[in-house]
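Intended use. Records like the one below are meant for learning the mapping from a protein sequence to its folded structure. Do not use them to infer anything beyond what is encoded.
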Amino acid sequence: MRGLTLLAALAIGFGRSDLGAQSTYTRATHVYKQVGGTEIKADVYRLLGDEVRPAVIWIHGGGLIFGDRTTIRPDQLIRFLDAGFAVISIDYRLAPETKLPAIIEDLRDACQWVRDQGPALFAIDPNRVAVVGNSAGGYLALVAGFAVSPRPKALVSFYGYGDLAGDWTARPDPNYLAMPRVSKEDAAKAVGGTVISESPRYPRVLFYTHARQTGRWIREIAALEPARNRGQLGRLSPIRQVTRDFPPTLLLHGDRDIDVPFEESARMAIALKRHGVPHRLVRMRNYDHLFDVYPTGWTQEGAKPVGLQDPKVAAAYDDVVAFLKSHIDR
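Structure written out for the chain above:
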């Protein structure tokens, strides 16, 4: 793929959830937090009825720069619901207007809100809560393993990252350099000074692309210099915060991921093993980033979201559900 068509692919997004005619599921939107004039929201999905259910907190991706709670894929959402979970899809403040420590604060507050308010508002068991996320949301899911108290019962990271101090975060990325260059001026126009907690991919994806092309991504999301602030970045990196008390963790990653290196999940698995944390790494052979949505590759011309219609992706989701069920009641 060449020229503007690749940037168009970047702007596709996951699509907004649409349960269609499914009358057995409900969705309710709540404001779990307000900062100044910014409302930060969560969508709660659950089966009809009053049965108390375990909960999955779902966190969207987008490089911490774009995206929102509505981008959870319907086929994945229904898979969790049919397995008996309530699903709480959360927003969080977005970079660069908000920096990473405050984003993690939103994560903490969302988890606390689910535990404190969830039993009364949407009939969940506060002692049976797991956190699931993809890409940047996968990173935040892993952050929940050390930054949230009490810790979730289980974590699932789809192609997330555990080490913000790694070289891959601080150098111009060759895969993004092969895409049409985004100028500093166009990148600046894509974001603004107003604090926000939800957005479509475009135009903010231009800012993310520019940050990856110039090696400035960490500087933009965390206001830290990788060469000078490795200690601070380490404290924001799950791989450097693993202890034996880290929650059971499932990692899923395509080994041909051109956005987040597969090694990020492989190294995270090594750290978990070193500390005796129950875990599993699902290596999706020959799959790219967003494998659970675009099994044939998200950068392909005319790529369509196949999702769980792909047998290997469906099998991976079977693993996710089985992993959550095996740990959430412990």
